[in-house]
Amino acid sequence: MLTKRIVPCLDIKDGRTVKGVNFVNLRDAGDPVELAAIYSEQGADELVFLDITATGDGRKTTAELVEKVAEKVNIPFTVGGGIKSVEDVYTLLHRGADKISINSWAVKEPKVLDELAAQFGSQCVVLAVDAKQIDGNWKVHLVGGKVPTEIDLFDWVREAESRGAGEILFTSMDHDGSKAGFANEALAKMSDMVNIPIIASGGAGSIQDFADTFVHGKADAALAASVFHFKEIEIPTLKQELKSQGIAMRI
């Protein structure tokens, strides 16, 4: 049985870790370099770093900060935000990222998924998808959730897999920061449609929420931010509890 992964997320704005609710009302959550070191030591399986205002600001991800974080961790490290060229990808991988996460760029130019998979390998290419329900249908949103599209979540995920994306990071904007659990129905549907790993994001509020997304949402990994940043859930305790429920964990 494949082990499930616990993935802390560092949402970065102006060099600081921040966290909001439904993608707005951001508050400071600490120094990203310090947090990264703590999560690596606590047994997190991977780490995600998202420069959440880079695309909206029309700038690149802060490569210097990526390098500082990479120096502090010994676990797989995914970086996203503001990536708009192959050169950007080279830069971030050179600075210490193991994978890159793209969202808006891929939606605007889907062929980049083919190109990146060919150049760097699918294992390096994570498609981030921010979506919310509109009239009962999941629609993809861009630029940190600010720009809605008519693109159907499930159609897009299927296409991304066919083009070479190696993993899907799905954030439910409706659940983000709510601490009311993950979007397990959508996750399970997605899991049944594709053969690549899916990271659940948006809604973690309790240990049971993690268990539910692994069992009912069929997620391969669960990403969370505020419950870790503000010490509401400690990663070692979470993993031990999940293991006790029969969920495969790397302890």
* CATH architecture title: Alpha-Beta Barrel
Identify the CATH class. Alpha Beta
Low-confidence stretches: none
Strand content: 25-35%
Stated plainly, the CATH topology is called TIM Barrel
**Helicity range:** 25-40%
Order of helices and strands: EEEHEHHEHEHHEEEHEHEHEHH
Q: What strand order characterises the main sheet? A: 1-4-5-6-7-10-11-12
Overall domain count:
1
Measured between the Cα atoms of the first and last residue, the distance is 15 Å
CATH superfamily: Aldolase class I
Q: Based on DSSP secondary structure assignment, what is the total number of beta strands?
A: 12
Number of helices: 11
Radius of gyration: 16 Å
Give the class from helix and strand content and strand pairing.
alpha/beta
Function: IGPS catalyzes the conversion of PRFAR and glutamine to IGP, AICAR and glutamate. The HisF subunit catalyzes the cyclization activity that produces IGP and AICAR from PRFAR using the ammonia provided by the HisH subunit.
Catalytic activity: 5-[(5-phospho-1-deoxy-D-ribulos-1-ylimino)methylamino]-1-(5-phospho-beta-D-ribosyl)imidazole-4-carboxamide + L-glutamine = D-erythro-1-(imidazol-4-yl)glycerol 3-phosphate + 5-amino-1-(5-phospho-beta-D-ribosyl)imidazole-4-carboxamide + L-glutamate + H(+)
Main location: cytoplasm
GO molecular function, one term: imidazoleglycerol-phosphate synthase activity
